[in-house]
Amino acid sequence: MSSNDDLVFIQRKIDPESFLIDSSKDVPGSFYLYINPENRNWFWYPILQFSENYFLQSPDYVASWDSNFADKHTSIRCIEIEELRIGTKGLGGLTPTAGDYIFLARKLRRGAKGLRVDKDKILFRSEIELKFEKGRRKYVPDAVSRLNCIYLADNETTLRKMFFEHFRTDYVFKVKIRQRMNCSKVDVDWYHRYWDTHSASSDDEDYWGIDKEEYIKKYWLSCPCDENAKNWEYLVDGLVGLENPQDIKRIHWSSVKTTIPP
């Protein structure tokens, strides 16, 4: 485990044979996980955990059993929105979404130079994520935050929608939810509809005349966007493990290309 002024990196090795797992916290069924190779800043996060531990854990879950990590970690769900947006307080352990779009965005807003990122993309996405986090706190405060969860789907089609910008099938992994502290089931189409209203031209009345806050509300209330479609994404606060042990070979292959933070 290492840290800097803003965040804590989770690097603790766990012996899979000795790790205590409570079977009552399993979630039945198989799920799909995508490790985005285009996310060069945070690609290391799932790769490192799977390569060393055979598990992927959310930060709050690690803090629930590791007192040393808990001493350095502040759950992002407890940090004020404006502090997330432009503050200087530590963010604790982060997952890739928060790392790329909250951590980097607030550094940019504070005037950081030399970051090799698409500034407009980072700032745009961070504002959307902050809107959804604000909505979570308003409508379903007990729901899992998008900012410190593990993203899963129960089918590959939905997974492709979740990572619509870049998607490669060789980075899809089948997993089991081995330990659940919390899990929220939400329809990803509401998120994309909200995204589209902000991407559309201001002259497009069909987009800008819509009550966009309603999209956020329905997302967190787990309302289906289309009764005939299966667009559920699962926001998991807990621990997931590979369903097929052979997939660890693919993880190790990916780790060769991965840059681990200092």
Q: Enumerate the spans where pLDDT stays under 50 for 5 or more consecutive residues.
A: 1-5, 258-262
Order of helices and strands: EEEHEHHHHHEHEHHHEH
Count up the helices: 11
Helix content: 40-55%
Strand content: 15-25%
Q: Compute the number of structural domains.
A: 1
Helix/strand-derived category reads alpha+beta
- Counted beta strands: 7
Provide structural commentary.
This protein has helices at residues 44-53, 59-65, 67-72, 81-86, 96-109, 119-139, 156-162, 188-199, 205-208, 212-220, 247-255; strands at residues 2-3, 8-9, 27-34, 55-57, 150-153, 172-187, 232-242. The protein is α+β, with helices and mostly antiparallel strands and 262 residues long. β1 and β2 form a beta hairpin. α5 (96-109) packs across α6, α6 packs across α10 (212-220) and α8 (188-199) packs antiparallel against α10 (212-220). The longest helix has 21 residues, at 119-139. The protein starts with a strand and ends in a 7-residue tail after the last helix.
Give a quick set of tags describing it:
two-stranded antiparallel sheet, disordered N terminus, 262 residues, 11 helices, alpha+beta, five-stranded antiparallel beta sheet, globular, single chain
Layout: helices, strands, pairs:
Layout: E1 2-3, E2 8-9, E3 27-34, H1 44-53, E4 55-57, H2 59-65, H3 67-72, H4 81-86, H5 96-109, H6 119-139, E5 150-153, H7 156-162, E6 172-187, H8 188-199, H9 205-208, H10 212-220, E7 232-242, H11 247-255
Antiparallel strand pairs: 1-2, 3-6, 4-7, 5-7, 6-7
Helix pairs in contact: 1-11, 5-6, 6-10, 8-10
